[in-house]
Amino acid sequence: MLVEAGAEVTITGRNPEKINTAVALLGERAHGSVVDAASIPQLQTFFREHGAFEHLVIAVSGAAGGGAFHSLDLQDLRHGFEAKFWPQIAVAQTSLQILQRDGSITFITAGSSRQALPGTVGLAAINGALDAMIPTLAVELRPLRVNAVSPGIIVTPWWDRVSEDFRNDFFAQSAAGTPVGRVGQPEDVAQTIIFLIQNTFVTGSIIDCDGGARLC
């Protein structure tokens, strides 16, 4: 969507195959670079070599940290923070060297931080920690705009880690429990991100993109 809107887009990640596939699909206005967001030296090198840019979207995440609290593996929860919280903060902080001050940072957190769902206390802690920082960052870093998108259940390859039967049943139950009657698609989140990039009168906001699941 950003490419279609005329932007030059740089995609980063640890998997060169995924990056190359995305760049090939998006065309000449898209570029890719292999970067491990958990590595400060790699981030510093990437931003220094990339040069100035206007908007940063941070989609770094993981799968660790879920489960019922009474049996939650605290080491697994620690891994969850290492996979999402710390890399997102590191990317944002390191980018400040060259990110234009009239641009924006958009974090991607998750609806677990704003829904009281049993079995997600660890995920709520990870994403809640990010959410809690958004208003303060928006004030401290102004005029740079800082926002977050908080997605609900979104159909992405993240769910390929579970069986197809479980996935289908879970999606059906989740859809039935939302006011809009469906689970989300990647396009839903993308539209929200683009709104936050383009609307220069929004900062310090956490936008729920969950089909109203938090209301139920």
UniProtKB/TrEMBL annotation:
The keyword Magnesium does not apply. Gene3D superfamilies: NAD(P)-binding Rossmann-like Domain. Keywords: Oxidoreductase. It comes from the Bacteria. It holds the Pfam family adh_short_C2. InterPro entries: NAD(P)-bd_dom_sf (IPR036291), SDR_DHRS6-like (IPR051122), SDR_fam (IPR002347). GO terms for molecular function: oxidoreductase activity. The keyword Oxidoreductase applies. Belongs to the short-chain dehydrogenases/reductases (SDR) family. This is Short-chain dehydrogenase. It comes from Dictyobacter arantiisoli.
